[in-house]
Amino acid sequence: MEIITIAIRYELTKAFGMIENKHIRSFLRVLDLGGFSRASRSLNIAQPALSQHVRRLEEQLGVTLLIRGPQGATPTQAGRNFATKARQILELVDSAERQFKGGADTLFGEVSLGLPGSVCPVLATPVIVEAKRRFPNIRLLVSELMSGDLADMLREGRMDIAILFNVAETDDFTSCELAIESLHLVGAAADPALSEGTVSASLLSELAFVGTRPPHGLRLLIERWSNETGISLSVDIEANSPAVLIEMAAQGACYSILAPAAIQRDVETGHLSTAQVVDPPIKRTACLCSSKRLAPDPARKAIHDLVHQIALNQLKNGTWEATPSVSEQVN
After folding, report:
1. 9, 19, 133, 268: most buried, per Cβ within 10 A?
2. Cβ–Cβ under 8 Å, residues 134 and 306
């Protein structure tokens, strides 16, 4: 009921010219960046002016959208509800402007792409370069985040496209299986336990690990595998940082379990050694997902198709060390 009420208030006040789109955009940027200071730098406007934008919006809607605090700004339930509606409305406005300004054959707009840290090294640069070449009027924003955070952003309409793992299509986002990754045991350079290129899963129970904390997707995947196989793992250190996982393993303090794409450069430079876990392997499926919370947009579809194409190219030429999904092998 609340979201309906807020939506009606918005439409009525907008009809009378009381709400400005810049106020809505200011609110959404504060929401996305988690604070007024970061949002003011991003928008290149003074923080007092930004605060006034949000305050004016709250006054016109008659609700509190953000809770201000020393650690930043967090949305109220009303703020989260309004954000979903506001993104849809602004997307429609932007879509209409692109249509009339550029003509039917010209793609305009802003598209956000989220990549988990393990995939970012093999996809980010080629996608950015090719998108700039093919679609000079599309502003592509690439973010490297944890897969769980990316899923939340897709559900809320705060991200257009993202790579997630082991997800099926939902009411919130589409899902297209791209590749199957086999995870590797990662340790210090020249570690004898990793010298053969593969390592039996049964040996993992004898090692100490650094890993992400639940409910991080990688940790949940490994725990599920551990329960299914009966192979216990000792995670002595927890860190939700790919850099920490890599460096702890590189120093020989403990081992980590990661996707090969995430550590490819470190292995090539001799900073790490790695071996694929086998008998049984630890696998996950990378999926290309697009938010259903946003209105259909040609620019978003163009970037989605581009990411799909480049991902397949990276798989074929071996840059992305993974196996194309069954559906892609059929195609």
Report:
1. 19
2. yes
61 confidence band (pLDDT: 50, 70, 90):
confident
> In whole angstroms, what is the distance from residue 266 CA to residue 268 CA?
5
Inter-helix orientation angle 47-61/2-15, to 10°: 110
Cα(296)–Cα(306) distance, rounded to whole angstroms?
16
Specify whether the CB–CB gap between 26 and 54 falls below 8 A.
Answer: yes
Q: Which two tokens stand for residue 85?
A: 């509606």
pLDDT in tens, 283-292: 999 999 999 9
Please name the residue that has the structure tokens 């949000």. Answer: 54
pLDDT for res 264: 86
| SS3 state at 50 | helix
Cis amide bond preceding 214, omega within 30: no
Query: How would you classify the pairing of strands 161-165 and 283-290?
Result: antiparallel
24-38: pLDDT as tens digits: 889 999 998 888 988
Report how far residue 242's alpha carbon sits from residue 217's, in angstroms, rounded to the nearest whole number.
Answer: 13
- DSSP lists the bridge partners of residue 114 as 143, 162
Find how far residue 265's CA is from the centre of its chain. 21
Closest CA to 284 of 142, 166, 153: 166
Band of residue 329 on the pLDDT scale cut at 50, 70, 90: low
Phi, psi of 186 (to 5 degrees): -120, 135
Are the CB atoms for 302 and 286 separated by under 8 Å? no
Residue 314 CB contacts under 8 Å (≥ 6 apart), including other chains:
122, 123, 126, 320
Tokens 């940790």 appear where?
219
DSSP 17: T
Q: Distance between CA atoms of 142 and 164, rounded to whole angstroms?
A: 14
Give 200-227 as a 3 state SS string.
EHHHHHHCEEEECCCCCHHHHHHHHHHH
| pTM > 0.85: yes or no | no
Query: Tens digit of pLDDT for each residue in 108-160?
Result: 788 999 999 889 999 999 999 999 999 988 889 999 988 888 999 999 899 99
